[in-house]
What does this fold into?
Amino acid sequence: MPSMPVLVLVATIALSLLTLFWTWTRWSMGHGARVLLRGLGVVLVIVGLYLSGLGNLVGNGVRSIHDWAQRTQISTPMLVGFSLAGAGLVFWVVGTLLRPRTREQAKAARLQRRGTAAPLASTSGRTTKRPAAPTPAPASDEDAEIAAILDRRGIQ
It folds into this structure.
């Protein structure tokens, strides 16, 4: 088996190339500078870990976990613990992929839970309360009749 520094170097190169490929693919699909900066940041962290010597520390940690897994007899509580940890990881990933709520959506949901109608959101993001306009007096008997019908049906 190769020595730990060689394994860490190979892992660093492989992870860096995979990250660069993923970043280039997403950026070329038009996802913008945000994806490009995030991907380059991850590559810099990977290379920085290797150059600072922390890559060997991570490699030794991985080897220790591997050795522990070979020595340990799996029991029911351990399986439950691994299952819970896996479910938590899945929830975290799915939660990360969900689109965040805007302020207007959060306010509308809060008002809906209270049982009040949500106000219409303006373009500036602020809601303004306007006083109700008084209904004008009908001009003729036909208009009065129509207004009465509309009022009976709850139409303003």
Notes: The chain is about 70% helix and 0% strand. Residues 9 and 50 are 7 Å apart (CA to CA). The helical segments are 4-28, 33-52, 54-71, 76-97, 103-114, 141-152. The radius of gyration is 31 Å.
